[in-house]
Amino acid sequence: MIRVPGLGVVAAAALLFLYVPIAVVVALSFNASSMVTLWGGFSVHWWGEAARDAPMRAALGNSLVAALAATSIATPLATAAALAFPPQGRAQGATRAIVALPLLVPEIVLAVALLLGFVLVGIPLGLPAIAAAHAVIALPFAYLPVRTRLDALDPALGEAARDLYASPWRSFRRITLPLIAPGVASGAMLAFVVSLGDFTIAFFLSGPGSTTLPVYVFGLVRTGLTPAVNAVSTTLLLLSVGLVAASRLLSNR
């Protein structure tokens, strides 16, 4: 292995640049001061304020509903796409390219395109539109763990099932599905996290009463922040980290 002098220092600096601000947000969520960025002593006061903030709770509820709906749509579609095409060949390559397209298109472009599309076909803006749009951007994240799991399966298992006169549905239900279940669960968790943290698409597609938490926090930035935002951000961070860690453990099973 070739060692590049100073590369470790650069990598450490990049990691600090990424994660120190997140650590500061977590620490300031326990700030007793009413100033967002000034430490005034340890307190859980703002956690209570966040819990009592009715609009913030409503926005969090909208985010959870949209994320659950998007996950419920994206996960079966991703699993079907992974199962529909063989692991090799042009069809599989084209499928991967199509599924990965939302990752390549700038999110602002995708948000504008979805907004225009919904308006043209007469779909009202709100949580259903947000959930459908989030399913689009979450699809690649749900697809990749399932496809990886399928690629690792031994083809002899399917051949043995056919030799024993198992129908395709029975072979899928008794052999394939149990073996890819960790990948499906992992993809569902990643899809949920992607939907939960999205701002751009939710900002364009939200209607009256359908403001998600990222959009609500953006509104607070314009009108005046309190450390309660740090508490909510820490809650979302812990939820996202927990789901990603669980997804990683399931993928490695």
How would you describe this structure to a colleague?
- The protein is mostly helical and 253 residues long.
- The chain is 78% helix and 0% strand.
- It contains eleven helices and no strands.
- Helix 3 (54-84) crosses helix 6 (127-151).
- The mean pLDDT is 82.
Please give the largest β-sheet: none
Q: Compute the gyration radius: what is it?
A: 22 Å
SS class: mainly alpha
What proportion strand? under 5%
Helix-strand pattern, N to C? HHHHHHHHHHH
What overall geometry do the principal axes of the alpha carbons give?
globular
**Average pLDDT rating:** 82
The total strand number stands at 0
Number of helices: 11
First-to-last CA distance: 29 Å
Q: Which labels suit this protein?
A:
single chain; 11 helices; 253 residues; mainly alpha
SSE diagram, text form:
Blueprint: H1 7-28, H2 45-52, H3 54-84, H4 90-104, H5 107-121, H6 127-151, H7 155-163, H8 168-197, H9 200-205, H10 213-223, H11 227-251
Please outline what is shown here.
The protein is mostly helical and 253 residues long. It has helices at residues 7-28, 45-52, 54-84, 90-104, 107-121, 127-151, 155-163, 168-197, 200-205, 213-223, 227-251.
